[in-house]
Recover the amino acids of this structure.
């Protein structure tokens, strides 16, 4: 990946119709390692969507070599074409997804050697067998997972699972509870809303299920439902709080699945997606009578 740069600075803004705005330690994507205060001020105004700005004063500017986080109006190079981004954990024999839950067992049902007796000389096949619970790896929750009368994998429409316009919400490091205020700046209607917490770095370790794991609050889940989100995903162990303090309540699951909004848990690789401008797919097989199942989740980034 080409080097990427960001600016850290303080800014004071005067508005033509009165009033002002001041920020300290603001960080913004920039196209290269050098940028004038005037150009940085223009990017700052464009990024925040500010109207009727009379003047911007930039101070304490520092240029940092750091991956871009996404911003309006920053062009970093020529389009490079369509790119697929893998967002699923690999399912391996004996792996741990949820501590204390059964691990998948991957074995051979038909070996290549045994198959030779069934086919012409030089022709052989391999058929594997997997025994696992549905909540393994990166998986989808449908309404039937939470509600007895909800649609299962066969009843969840493809337009809730495939080729959805995507949105990544970058959750600040150290934040546990993703609340309505953190989601307030985003237009979520009709989108797959993916919560990027970075907690996938602990997948397969004891810490992954620890009490510090990030989650979506019930109020935030209801806000996403009210705003028309099509799907919600997270790269943490659960979209709900699993700490002892939660006492087994699952308000985010309850609200989202009651409204027919599918959930994808245990995502990974969300740092490789832009904030917007991509399509998201997480479609499981059509298995009747099941409310959850592993998915091959991925994003498609154009240009």
């Amino acid at each position: 990946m080409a080097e990427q740069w960001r600016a850290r600075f303080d800014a004071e803004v005067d508005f033509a119709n009165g009033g002002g705005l001041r920020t300290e330690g603001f960080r913004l994507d920039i196209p290269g390692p050098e940028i004038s205060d005037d150009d940085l001020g223009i990017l700052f105004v464009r990024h925040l969507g500010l109207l009727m700005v009379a003047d911007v004063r930039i101070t304490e500017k520092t240029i940092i070599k750091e991956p871009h986080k996404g911003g309006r109006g920053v062009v970093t190079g020529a389009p490079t074409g369509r790119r697929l981004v893998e967002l699923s954990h690999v399912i391996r024999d004996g792996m741990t997804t949820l501590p204390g839950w059964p691990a998948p067992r991957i074995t051979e049902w038909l070996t290549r050697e045994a198959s030779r007796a069934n086919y012409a000389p030089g022709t052989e096949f391999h058929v594997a067998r997997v025994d696992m619970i549905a909540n393994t790896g990166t998986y989808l929750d449908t309404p039937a997972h939470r509600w007895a009368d909800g649609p299962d994998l066969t009843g969840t429409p493809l337009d809730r699972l495939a080729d959805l316009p995507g949105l990544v919400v970058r959750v600040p490091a150290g934040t546990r509870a993703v609340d309505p205020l953190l989601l307030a700046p985003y237009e979520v209607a009709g989108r797959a809303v993916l919560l990027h917490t970075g907690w996938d770095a602990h997948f397969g370790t004891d810490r992954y299920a620890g009490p510090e794991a990030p989650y979506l609050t019930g109020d935030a889940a209801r806000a996403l439902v009210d705003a028309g989100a099509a799907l919600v995903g997270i790269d943490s162990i659960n979209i709900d709080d699993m700490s002892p303090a939660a006492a087994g309540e699952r308000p985010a699951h309850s609200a989202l699945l009651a409204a027919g909004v599918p959930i994808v848990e245990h995502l990974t690789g969300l740092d490789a997606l832009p904030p917007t401008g991509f399509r998201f797919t997480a479609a499981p097989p059509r298995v009747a009578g099941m409310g959850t199942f592993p998915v091959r989740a991925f994003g498609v980034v154009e240009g």
About this structure: The first helix runs from residue 37 to 48. The CA atoms of residues 215 and 241 lie 5 Å apart. The radius of gyration is 23 Å.
